[in-house]
Amino acid sequence: MKLDTSGLESAAPLFGVTSELVDGFSSAPSFELPVTTDFDGFQKEAIQMVKPARGTTTLAFIFKEGVMVAADSRASMGGYISSQSVKKIIEINPYMLGTMAGGAADCQFWHRNLGIKCRLHELANKRRISVTGASKLLANILYSYRGMGLSVGTMIAGWDETGPGLYYVDSEGGRLKGTRFSVGSGSPYAYGVLDSGYRYDLSIEEAAELARRAIYHATFRDGASGGVASVYYVGPNGWKKLSGDDVGELHYKYYPVMPSTVEQEMVEVAGA
Amino acid sequence: MECVFGLVGNGFAIVAADTSAVHSILVHKSNEDKIMILDSHKLIAASGEPGDRVQFTEYIQKNVALYQFRNGIPLTAVAAANFTRGELATALRKNPYFVNILLAGYDKETGPSLYYIDYIATLHKVEKGAFGYGSYFSLSMMDRHFHSGMSVEEAIDLVDKCILEIRSRLVVAPPNFVIKIVDKDGAREYAWRESVKEAVAV
Q1: Interchain contact, B202 vs A200, CB within 8 Å
Q2: Which residues contact B136 (CB under 8 A, 6 or more apart)?
Q3: According to its UniProt record, which protein family does this protein belong to (chain A) (predicted)?
Q4: Where are the domains positioned within chain B?
C-alpha cells in the first residue's frame, strides 16, 4: 500500500531542468506502509512478537568460595529447537561473567558493550571496575531503552575488591543485588532444587554439583531448556569453566536404567 | 503486590514497606529495601515498576543533594514533595514513571509531615496513607485506630497490626517488611518484620 503524497508536492519543477530528468521522475513521491488496516496497533504487535518468554534456564549463587554460574544451551523459536549448543554464559572480562536469557542478540551485544565500558573504566581510573559499578552501567543503558522491545534477563557475576558479587539486571530496568538468582522459563524448577540444596559453606565441587543438578532438573521439566549444562566458577583469580555435560547423559547418570525382572516371556508356539 | 503505608505521630513520621522483589510468579528476593533515605531528615517509600522505582528515587535524591550543595541549606519536606510531583507531572505525557511514593519528612519549623504522591502526579499532604493491595487492609486499620499525636510505641503497635492483617488476609501477602522512622534526630531504619529469613552472604 502506497501513501500518495502528490497533493503535497507542487506540480511544476522549481527551477528549469531538462525534460528528460522530469520524465524520469514521473510518478508522485510516495513510501511503503505496512500491509495492515490497524496502523496504531501495528507497532505494539511488532514489539509483542519480539518479546517471547525467555526460553532458557540460567542460575547463579554466591557461596563461601565465590560465585557459581550455570546455564543450559538450548535456543528455541516457538516450538522449534534452533540450536542445542548456544553459549549462554558470556565472558565480559577475566573476572566477570554475564548470563544470557531473552533475546540472544540483545544479550550478546550489550554484554560486549559492557565489556568495552569496563575496559575503558579500567584505563581511565587505573583500577578494575566493581561488580556493582558494572551492573549499574548495564542497568542504566537498558533503562534508557525501556519500552523499545529489548529482551534481556541477565545476571552479572564477578569477584572484585569487596569479594564475590552477584546482580540481576533486566530489560525493564530492574536491578537486584542478591545471593541466589535463577532466570528464564525453567527458573522456577531450578529454584526448587537450588533452594533446598543450598548452604553457604559448600565446597567448590559440591556447589558445582548443586548447580549442575538444578539445571538438569529444569531441563527435564521445561521444554524450552536443554542441551548442555555448563558450570562456571568465579573465584579470587577470575572465572574458570568447570564442566559442560549433556543433560541427556546426566539423566542416565542420575537415574540409571535398572534391568527389570521379566515376569512372563513369550514363547514360540511349536508347530503350526 | 507491593504494600507501602505510613502515618504521622507526635514529632515523628513512620513508613513501612514490604521487601519482596517479584517477577510474575517468582520471588527473586525478599529483603529488597524500598524505603530510600532522601537526606538527613526525609524518607521516600516507593512502590511500582522496579526500574522506574530505583531510577526515579535516585534522580530525586541526587537533585535534592544538589540543591543543598548549591544553596547551603536543605530543602524542606514540602518543597521536596512538590519537586517530586513536578518531575512526575512533566514526564507524565511523554515518558511516564510508574512509581507511587510516600514522602515522610521532618522540618524544625513545621515538625513531621507525610506526603502522598501517586504515579499520575497527585500530591496530598496526609496524616496516614497507603499504596498497593495492602492499602485495602491497612487504610481501614489506620482509620480506626489512628489519633493525632500518637507516641512511637502506639504507632509501631498500629503498624504491626496492619502488617498482621495484610499477612493474614492478602492472598499474595509479602512475608517481610521494613519500618523506617524520621524525627528530629534524623531519618533511620527502625526495624524489620521478617517471617522468612533470606540467606545473606556473610
Answers
A1: yes
A2: none
A3: Belongs to the peptidase T1B family.
A4: 4-199
Task: Report CA torsion sign: A147, A79, B26, B133.
Answer: positive
Q: Do B26 and A175 touch (CB under 8 A)?
A: no
CB contact under 8 A, A188 and B199: no
Into which CATH architecture does domain B4-199 fall? Answer: 4-Layer Sandwich (3.60)
- The alpha-carbon gap from A122 to the nearest alpha carbon of chain B, in Å, equals 25
Which residue type, as a one-letter code, is found at position A200?
Y
Confidence of residue A49 (pLDDT cuts 50, 70, 90): low
B27 - beta bridge partners?
B22
Biggest CA-to-CA distance, chain A: 106
Q: Tell me the pLDDT tens digit for each residue of B122-156.
A: 999 999 999 999 999 999 999 999 999 999 999 99
| Whether the Cβ atoms of residue A222 and residue A207 lie closer than 8 Å to each other | no
- Out of A85-94, A204-213, B2-11, B98-107, pick the least confident: A85-94
**pTM assigned to the model:** 0.79
Interface test with A, best of B29, B49, B176, B197 (most A CBs within 10 A): B29
Distance (Å) from the alpha carbon of A181 to chain B's nearest alpha carbon: 7
What values do phi and psi take at A205, rounded to 5? Answer: -65, -40
ipTM over 0.90: no
